Amino acid sequence: MLTTLSVIGLAFSLDLLLGEPPTAVHPVAWFGRLVGAVDRAWSDDERRQRLVGGAIAAVAPLVPAAVAGGVVLVAGLVHPMGGGIAAALVLFLTTSLRSLLELTEDVVGATADEADLERARERVRGLVGRDTATLPAGELRSAAVESAAENLADGLVATLLPFAILAPISLPAAAAAAAWVKGVNTLDSMLGYPSKPIGTASARLDDLVMLLPARVAAVSIAVAAADPLALARAWQWARVPPSPNSGWPMATLACALSVRLEKAGVYVLNPDADLPSLADGEHAVTVVGRGAVVSLVLAIGLAVATSGVVTP
After folding, report:
1. Which of 146, 147, 164, 290 has its CA nearest to residue 219?
2. Measured distance between the N- and C-terminal CA atoms of the chain, rounded to whole angstroms
3. Which of 117, 265, 270, 272 is most buried per CB count within 10 Å?
4. If you average pLDDT over residues 136-152, what whole number do you get?
5. b/e map 86-116, b = 16+ CB within 10 Å
6. Which pathway does it serve (predicted)?
């Protein structure tokens, strides 16, 4: 149990101290290049493309899982502390908190001055995929706040929870699970578009994997905002976005902040409120940060529970 807590503590210390590693040396970016290599028209037949996409969704995430689990296993055989350090590195590389909060804060801050809006439009592209060229300040803040909520689930909870549950049993298995989930998320972000039949299976798999993390993130946000009823109020809008999962943390944060979050032509959450003000955007960063702490406490609780089961 102490090993698990030490590993999780080291991973989050690395994130707080270092943030995201440079893209050139980030294993997730390396996996992205692998996905890019298979992202092509394998056939003119849409059904065959979907079949190929199913094989990619089944096999591709196993690559980072095997590498991560293998590295932790070998490191543990080399030195008693090696496995724990390697597992912490895997968790660090498959989660992201500091960079998310800093980028969100940067975008929100840039909307304070009309002269900085172009910088905000440029920076927000690191958070969202929509066209930001003409977005006004309120919609830029909305985009940043939406992404912060959604990425609490994708970038932290989704990999942290399985890692925490499995770590007391096997650090290699925990590392492999975290890397597998990150692989699924990456596949969906690169292939999971309606215009890409090859990505249909990846999108469906990601929907399944994110079912629980998105809702845990929503609960964490409600607790962090000291407004547990925000989750109940979010119920009516959580299913509005096309994704079956992303609406939960986004709608919960919208209700907790009493703001409207909107992607033009796609969804509007908490429509009777106003778009986020500068103060609302800054508060959102604080709430998501606290939500990450709540998620971490939950993960530690799950690790303790698992440890109690495996070592009665």
Report:
1. 290
2. 12
3. 270
4. 94
5. bbbbbbbbbbbbbbbbebbbbbbbbbeeeee
6. Cofactor biosynthesis; adenosylcobalamin biosynthesis
According to DSSP, the residues that pair with 267 across neighbouring strands are: 263
Q: Structural domain tally of the chain?
A: 1
The model carries a pTM of 0.93
Task: Residue 213: give the domain boundaries.
Answer: 2-310
| Cα 38 to Cα 42: distance, rounded to the nearest angstrom | 9
